[in-house]
Write a structure and sequence with these properties.
Layout (H helix, E strand, L loop, with lengths): L23 E3 L15 E6 L5 H13 L3 E6 L5 E5 L2 H8 L4 E6 L2 E4 L14 H6 L20 E6 L17 E2 L13 H10 L10 E6 L6 E3 H18 L3 E5 L1 E4 L4 H12 L3 E5 L10 E2 L7 E6 L17 E4 L3 E4 L7 E4 L2 H18 L5 H11 L1 E2 L11 E2 L12 E2 L3 E3 L12 E6 L2 E2 L5 E9 L7 E3 L8 E6 L2 E12 L8 E2 L3 E6 L5 E3 L3 E4 L7 E5 L5 E7 L2 E8 L5 E6 L2 E7 L6 E10 L4 E8 L12 E3 L1 E5 L1
Parallel strand pairs: 1-6, 7-9, 7-11, 8-9, 11-13, 13-15, 15-16
Antiparallel strand pairs: 1-12, 2-4, 2-5, 3-4, 6-10, 12-14, 17-18, 19-20, 21-24, 22-23, 23-27, 25-26, 25-28, 28-29, 28-30, 30-41, 31-34, 32-33, 33-40, 34-39, 35-38, 35-41, 36-37, 36-39
Helix pairs in contact: 1-2, 4-7, 5-6
């Protein structure tokens, strides 16, 4: 259920950056102007973790009574609300011990970016750089996974759904503007970002599912409360659908503002979503920006093709790593095949999001902390210049994974039970197993069969790659054996798990001792082509065998009746072979005996459950396993 509810129209951004007020921005090329933070009495109210749902609701109702107009309610990424607050209502909330923060609802805007049409042939320099340690490029981008099964939430200006780069992988998403999330406008910032995350030509994770969350208008503005609403929606959507996910947010707010934004991002991370954000384009400290300064987030600065920090890129200890951010080519919005070149930490961040998505395909169970660790361990170190106090880490797309082998449990072999059918010359045998992977998922299984007790093995095709059972029609043989192994999502095979040896005997009643008169019938629908039957009360058939299980195969029909079954001299069952329609090759009786020599005796009762019909009993065959 969507719990993010718009209550009032968004207030437009006005004015320039002045004094101590720093507006947020989508981090493209260094902006020439930033809208003021004053949002006409709009505030974001966040509550402490100890505040209960009822206490939050009571504070909200009290604020409404004091004249507040609610814009958004938050209960997933943030506990609180955004509202137009009169001074009195704001003052009351600021004195409430359950309220963590009452902060102005800043305006975040898109800056002007250099945007030119270009034709892409081959691999872009950005992709070329991140898959190798050296700055000497080879014109190739090598990858083993492409983000299949992973969701990338692009919180931005929307994504052009019809662009050829995305191949139908863009979902409807959610828009907090008047236009759908699957449209983009203005400078096409969101489409460019999405193309770097998951475009077929320009993207890192070429199979990732892209979910646009449109929070910025065509004019490039959005209030912080709207961005929080976008994070809230993405978090709820992730919780509903499950699976691995990454959020890309190339925006921020400065001057020690943005507590609510940080809390929303932190809660998205707690919900299991890796959160990638741009460091910012002021050429100063990233620690002055939110959510760039948030520790659990992944904050990305921009470098040039010479591995030198881009002059506009923020830096410092709050930057986690750098990625290409100058002259970056990706999808444009002028046509379904358009390209555009842009600069900014906005362009560096999605390269990292793409690497995260590719990693999550390999290790879908990895939490955000494990993703950060793998990402940082893989980075190329000591190659960057002019980075100030930033860590000297360059994005490297080939992340190492400590991959444990998948496992297969016992391989079980089962024959058909009572009232199931066998073939005239074969027996359907079901082979089943279970599998697991301690640090990933099982992608497929391999099944092999041996008919000589395990000396030689032949592959058996499964109905589906990840199938965990199959039914095979087997003939009599003394050495059936099966083995299965799992292949995990990284392609690593586990150890073989082997079934017990299955000896299968199909005896066409020839060795049974028949007492009194039994007549022989023949037919192509009978096991072995023939059967013996009788209606004589007290007539019997005695079958001696060596094995662990035994099955009596016969016919059911309108004129068939009952028989008693004795195993090793003990009555174990009464079988009724009556049925409304004729059915041959039926399992009339099945039991497990344990190994050794046993005697099965069938005695005709001369009775039928339908008194108007006959009481015939047939014996087609006996099936024994050892």
């Amino acid at each position: 259920m969507d719990r993010v509810r718009a209550r009032a129209p968004q207030v437009a951004a006005t004015g320039l950056l002045t004094g101590s007020v720093l507006a947020g921005l989508l981090f493209g090329l260094t902006p020439s102007a930033i809208a003021t933070a004053e949002a006409g009495g709009r505030y974001i109210v966040s509550f402490t973790e100890s505040a209960t749902t009822d206490e939050v609701a009571a504070a909200r109702d009290h604020a409404i009574a004091a004249g507040a107009q609610i814009i958004y309610d938050y209960d997933t990424a943030l506990s609180g609300f955004a509202a137009l607050l009169p001074d009195a209502a704001r003052a009351d909330l600021q004195t409430d011990p359950l309220v963590a923060e009452v902060e102005p609802d800043e305006v975040m805007t898109i800056a002007e970016e250099t945007s030119t049409s270009s034709t892409q042939s081959g691999v872009t320099n950005g992709l070329d750089r991140i898959d190798q340690r050296s700055r000497k490029l080879n014109g190739k981008f090598t990858y083993s996974t492409a983000g299949a099964g992973v969701v990338a939430y692009v919180i931005d200006t929307g994504v052009m759904v019809g662009h050829s780069e995305f191949g139908g992988r863009v979902e409807a998403g959610r828009s907090f503007t008047s236009l759908p999330a699957t449209t983009d406008c203005g400078e096409g910032h969101g489409t460019h970002v999405a193309g770097l995350i998951g475009g077929e030509t320009y993207g890192v994770a070429k199979d990732v599912t892209i979910v646009p969350v449109k929070v910025f208008s065509c004019g490039g503005s959005a209030s912080v409360s709207t961005v929080i609403a976008g994070i809230e929606w993405a978090t709820e959507n992730h919780q509903q659908r499950g699976g691995p996910a990454v959020i890309n947010l190339s925006a921020g707010v400065g001057k020690n503002l943005g507590a609510g934004l940080e809390q929303a991002a932190a809660n998205a991370i707690k919900a299991g979503i890796s959160f990638v954000t741009a460091a910012g384009n002021e050429g100063g400290s990233a620690c002055a920006h939110s959510p760039a300064r948030l520790g659990p987030a992944i904050t990305v600065g921009a470098v040039s093709s010479s591995d030198k920090r881009a002059g506009f890129s923020n830096f410092g200890t709050c930057v986690d790593l750098f990625a290409p951010g100058l002259n970056v080519v990706s999808a444009g919005i002028d046509s379904p095949t358009d390209t555009a070149m842009k600069d900014g930490t906005s362009m560096a961040a999605p390269y990292v999001s793409g690497v995260v998505a590719a990693f999550l395909q390999r290790v879908p169970s990895a939490n955000p902390a494990k993703v950060r660790s793998a990402l940082f361990k893989a980075t190329t170190r000591g190659r960057l210049r002019n980075i100030g106090s930033s860590p000297n880490r360059m994005l490297y797309s080939v992340l190492k994974v400590a991959n444990k082998a998948p496992r297969v449990g016992d391989v079980k072999v089962a024959l058909p039970g009572k009232d199931r059918a066998v073939g005239t010359s074969t027996v359907p045998v079901r082979i089943s197993w279970t599998g697991s992977d301690p640090d990933g998922t099982v992608a497929s299984y391999q099944l092999q069969r041996s008919t000589d007790g395990g000396r030689h093995w032949n592959s058996v095709a499964l109905p589906a790659a990840a199938a965990r059972s199959i039914t095979l029609n087997l003939g009599a043989d003394s050495g059936h054996r099966f083995r299965v192994r799992a292949i995990d999502n990284l392609g690593r095979p586990g150890a073989w798990s082997t079934s017990d040896k299955l000896g299968l005997t199909v005896d066409q009643q020839g060795s049974a001792k028949l007492r009194r008169t039994w007549s022989k019938d023949t037919g192509s629908d009978l096991a072995g082509g023939s059967s013996h039957g009788t209606r004589i009360k007290g007539a019997s058939a005695t079958y001696t065998f060596t094995g662990r299980t035994v099955r009596w195969i016969g016919t059911t029909d309108l004129d068939h009746g009952k028989a008693r079954v004795y195993l090793d001299g003990r009555l174990v069952a009464t079988v009724d072979a009556y049925s409304a329609t004729r059915q041959t090759c039926q399992v009339l009786f099945a039991t497990t005996t344990g190994p050794g020599r046993h005697t099965l005796r069938i005695v005709v009762m001369g009775q039928n459950s339908n008194r108007s019909s006959g009481d015939r009993v047939d014996i087609d065959a006996f099936v024994v396993t050892s």
